[in-house]
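Hello,

Our lab assistant flagged a job as stuck in the queue for most of the afternoon. It eventually completed. Since we weren't sure the result was trustworthy after the delay, we are filing this so someone can double-check. Below is the sequence as submitted and the structure that was eventually returned. Let us know if re-running is recommended.
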Amino acid sequence: MRSRAIGLILAGIFLAADAIFLLRHNSFSVGGSDSSGYLNTAKRMVAGRLVARPRTLDRLGLPDGDVQLVTPLGFVTGSRGTMIPFYPAGFPAHMAAAAQLFGWNLGPFLVSPLAAVSCLPLFFFLARELALPRSWAAAGTALFAAWPVGIGQAIQPMSDATATFWCLASVLCAVKARRRTVWALPAGAALGIAVLVRPTNLLLVIALAFALPVAPAALALFVLGGVPFAALLALFNMRCYGNPLQSGYRKIGLLDAVALVNFSPRLRHYGGWLFRSLTPLIPLGWLGLALDREVRWRDRGLLLSWFGAFFLFYCLYEPYDSFWFVRFLLPAAPALFLGALLAAQDLSSKLPRLPRFVIAALLFGAVLFAEIRTLRSIGILHIAESESTYPQICAWAARTVPPGGVVLSMAASGALENYTDMSYARWDWLTPEKLADLRARTKGRGTRWFALLYPFEWEQLPQHAPGRWRKIGQLREVGLWELEE
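-- returned structure --
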């Protein structure tokens, strides 16, 4: 009993320290397509304006056909001059709920770090359900908490940590259902929420087929738990896209990015970053689980199919060079760690106690060292500083641009939507002819045209909006320009 109490105290200290660490480095800003898209959608959910006309469209008296020009990042065009959310409902719903509790300036930004911290006890309990000793389960939890991919998504308003939480919750409940069938009900509900957050989390059903007990009652409860959230997804899709099976992803043809030709470059990309951030020990240990007869075949199937399904699917997704896209694997990463832990524990159990402890400590240290090195080399803990540029440049533009001015932007368009009431347009959808038409339409109103641009945008602007642009000033790396007559 005393050792259990000590364990609980240490676990509480660890979770509190992790929460403090994440909150200290957390970004409380939105700006890019994902973060601004989630928060803008959350605000529209609460306001009941999921489908609405962009404010600049009517301010400039533009026809419905020009709606794309004034639709910010994170949204796609709907019918009759409207814009609709690009992203699924799940994560914005979490942000909206948190905002009701803590306000819009704080609540939405707590979702990711709190979800990441909440993943840790779920990981530990799942490790115990899979028969890992407490020491191994605790060590694995620490390694999972230190993975740079997870930390990077925990300290910014992105959906990945929340998706991981609900996937972990679903698998844990499904495994517990082997002993008490009633756990199949929350397993289905957790999967339903996970799919609301990210539709590709439906891949988890392959692993859940190994996790759940083979019994009609368990299957019925599992389906019953998921049905309400499937209905919510259908209602959201129907409201936004006019079809319960439609989504923002399909609206822009994102599924066309999935192709067999992508497999080789994606395999090298994901494999390279997994080896770099975790050493080859974790990925190879997970693969070695397939040969570990000490682990129950259903548990092997669970862990191999959980990570394997996500890994193979995203290896078919269009290539990106950035480290940040490894985040797609985060909802399946617990299986990678757990599989490696089970394989390593069974292999070390054949050794005498002292060598076993020494080898386990060395392996733990090697992986932790690789994680810390990657965390520093990528500059993950500077995310908050980088993202804070968006609210700063929006406030600067709002002070500088006169009433009635129109700001051309792309990278900051979602931030302009969230932080200001300014009129803006997307330079990346403009053509020289279209800009001339817009200037002619608004000339009688005395409209002045500005551009809020990152350096890479300024390089491309002349192709879309030629003219005599005068630089007004610069804040950090972002410039504000005015188009002269």
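-- support follow-up --
The delay was a queue issue, not a problem with the job. The result is valid. Residues 386-483 form one domain. The chain has three domains: 2-28+91-384, 33-90, 386-483.
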